[in-house]
Design a protein that fits this description.
Length: 140
């Protein structure tokens, strides 16, 4: 009887450890540095290098997003993770565009999806429109 209880205990311990390993493998952490590219579909497919530094606490994200070439929108962001779904909102340049929302999925060190750029009210009066695009980033 003693050997059966020991094997039972051993089996339960192994199952708990395996379960914990599976859980951690299923949820990619957003924490770290991400590099990639975004493409603004609204203004003729203009592309820009993209760098994102992320701090994660639970399901909440914050950090800095830097567009490295011709597109605008670098700044601080906040966001959240829900499973593999990740949404962040960056500031934009606050004079022309605000509330850049980046929505996508994170899997195996890749974060890709779409973004939407809202013009400020004064920029909208000058004819600026909502812009949309795509992005892909790889965790470094």
């Amino acid at each position: 009887m003693y050997a059966v209880l020991t094997m039972n205990s051993f089996f339960k311990s192994c199952m708990m450890v395996a379960g914990a390993c599976l859980l951690s493998a299923c949820s990619d952490s957003a924490e770290g540095v991400w590099l990639g590219e975004c493409c603004n579909d609204t203004i003729g497919g203009s592309k820009s290098g993209l760098k994102m530094s992320v701090n994660q606490e639970g399901d909440k994200l914050q950090g800095v997003l830097v567009l490295q070439d011709s597109l605008y929108g670098s700044g601080h962001f906040v966001g959240y993770v829900n499973g593999k779904d990740v949404t962040i909102r960056s500031e934009g340049d606050t004079q022309t565009f605000v509330n850049i929302t980046w929505t996508g999925k994170m899997k195996d060190g890749v974060y890709k999806g779409t973004y939407r750029v809202e013009p400020t009210p004064s920029a909208a009066l000058l004819g600026k429109q909502v812009q949309r695009g795509t992005f892909i980033m790889h965790k470094q």
